[in-house]
């Protein structure tokens, strides 16, 4: 257990490279919930992919930790070809056994705080069409369909955009 954490309190902090395995495991558990037939086969080494994301100097990976366990994760950065004031939320997951406990709301608020502090005025993401829970979560936080990226007929993702309220 990390000494600066308090029992029962959610601590949101940058992920560390040595936590890539725990982050990848949470990622897999969360993704499995919206695929009707389970996770599709993949040749991606997710632990390695997460380690690279965590170590990337132009990206941030935040994790929510409660009682020494990583229970929520988010990764974001400015994607290639986008304006510098735009950030893309690449991954956002909460451990399924911890849904409806406010973890996602706290993590989203921490992401927004970082985006605004860094001068980011727009955020984008794509969400799987079968992930209705995530779509509702994002809608409650002001995400709307991205008018610049309508979904293609053969795509399995919806593209959403967020701007600070009042802008």
CATH homolog superfamily? Gcn5-related N-acetyltransferase (GNAT)
**Percentage of residues in strands:** 25-35%
Shape: globular
Content-based structural category: alpha+beta
CATH architecture descriptor: 3-Layer(aba) Sandwich
* CATH fold topology: Aminopeptidase
Roughly what is the average pLDDT, rounded to an integer?
88
User: What is the CATH top level name?
Assistant: Alpha Beta
Quick tags:
28% helix, alpha+beta, 167 residues, Aminopeptidase, 7-stranded mixed beta sheet, single chain, 28% strand, globular
Please provide a brief summary of the model.
The protein has four helices and seven strands; from the N terminus they run E-H-H-E-E-E-H-E-H-E-E. It has 167 residues and is α+β, with helices and mostly antiparallel strands.
Overview of the molecule:
It contains 4 helices and 7 strands; from the N terminus they run E-H-H-E-E-E-H-E-H-E-E. The protein is an alpha+beta fold and 167 residues long. It has one domain: Aminopeptidase (3-Layer(aba) Sandwich). The chain has a 7-stranded mixed sheet, sandwiched between helices. It is globular, with a radius of gyration of 16 Å.
What are the SSEs and their pairings?
Elements: E1 10-14, H1 20-32, H2 46-55, E2 59-66, E3 69-77, E4 86-94, H3 103-117, E5 122-128, H4 132-140, E6 144-145, E7 157-162
Helix pairs in contact: 1-2
